[in-house]
Amino acid sequence: MRDVTIREYRDTDLDACRHLWRELTQRHRDIYGDSSIGGDDPGRLFDEYLENLALVGPWVVEWDSAVVALGGLLVEGSQAEVEPVVVLSRCRSHGIGTRLIEHLIEEARRRGVRSLSVRPVARNAEAMACFRRAGFSFLGHVEMFQDLVRGDRKWKRGITLHGEEYRY
Ligand SMILES: CC(C)(COP(=O)(O)OP(=O)(O)OC[C@H]1O[C@@H](n2cnc3c(N)ncnc32)[C@H](O)[C@@H]1OP(=O)(O)O)[C@@H](O)C(=O)NCCC(=O)NCCS
């Protein structure tokens, strides 16, 4: 793809990255049908993210001189997590997410990371497909939980693991 570059985040990217964080939140609001996810000002969560001591990067993707994607790594010794990866909604399905994920994998490798994880919510099938294609083919911990406020959310059926069905 022409005119696509990946570079380290700069202070001048703050507004663009807050917007990307809002779009990341919007994705979760959409798939769960819950507009309360992320609170009143989800863009501010990016500012909190920048304070994370484990953060390496983040990196942004520029397409025709505009910031269209954000990705980072949380590194703890020889383990790291991809967090987050988000592409502007109007720029998705052009291979940008895949390019960014490949870049993050390479940055992790350069830092001696031996195990690289990513933790999408189970309902985010689109993101999971993208990560799977990029080589995330092992399953580590699985988060099991109970919804104690029943009726708030409609859970989907159809994920089976070790012969047991789970809602997600
Ligand atoms: C998940 C996400 C980062 C993927 O980014 P993306 O830029 O759309 O990803 P890609 O374009 O690389 O791949 C996605 C699709 O484009 C296709 N594609 C890949 N390279 C392509 C290319 N050069 N040209 C056209 N299409 C391409 C892929 O086959 C894939 O198609 P499909 O999913 O319809 O089968 C993006 O959907 C996103 O920001 N989602 C919201 C935030 C989110 O959920 N993040 C993950 C949280 S863990």
What's the helix and strand layout?
Layout: E1 4-8, H1 14-32, H2 45-50, E2 55-63, E3 66-76, E4 79-87, H3 96-110, E5 115-118, H4 125-133, E6 157-161, E7 164-167
Bound molecules: coenzyme A (COA).
Description:
By secondary structure, this protein is α+β, with helices and mostly antiparallel strands. The protein has one domain: Aminopeptidase (3-Layer(aba) Sandwich), CATH 3.40.630. Helix content is 29%, strand content 28%. The protein is built from 4 helices and 7 strands; from the N terminus they run βααβββαβαββ. It has a 5-stranded mixed sheet with strand order 1-2-3-4-5. A two-stranded antiparallel ribbon has the order 6-7. β4, α3 and β5 form a beta-alpha-beta unit. The longest helix is centred in the first third of the chain and has 19 residues. The radius of gyration is 17 Å and the shape is globular. It binds coenzyme A. The site of coenzyme A has 19 residues, from α1, β4, α3 and α4.
Largest sheet: 5 strands, mixed
CATH architecture: 3-Layer(aba) Sandwich
Q: Could you tell me the strand content as a percent range?
A: 25-35%
Number of helices: 4
Shape assignment: globular
Q: Structural class of the helix and strand makeup?
A: alpha+beta
